[in-house]
Amino acid sequence: MNCKDAQNLINGYVDGELDLVRNLEIEHHLQECALCSQGYKNHQVLRNGIKTGPFYFKAPVDLQRRIQLSLRKAAKAEAGPRVLPKWWLTIAAPMAAAAIVVLALVPFLRGPSADDLLAGEVISSHVRSLMATHLADVPSSDQHTVKPWFAGKLNFSPPVEDLARQGFPLIGGRLDYVDNRPVAALIYQRQKHFINLFIWPSGSDSDVGTKTVSRQGYNLFYWTKSGMTYWAASDLNNSELQEFVQLVQNQTSPTP
Amino acid sequence: MDASYNLARWLTRNEHDAKDIVQEAYLREFKLFDGSHGTDARAWLKLKEKDKLARFEQSILPHLDAAYNLARWLTRNEHDAEDMVQEAYLRAFKFFNAFRGVDGRAWLLTIVRNTCYTWLQQNRAHEITTMFDEEIHSVDSDASNPATLALQSADQQILREALDELPVEFREVVVLRDLEGFSYKEIADIVNIPTGTVMSRLARARERLKQLLCNRGDLA
Question: Can you give the pLDDT at residue A241?
Answer without folding.
Answer: 94
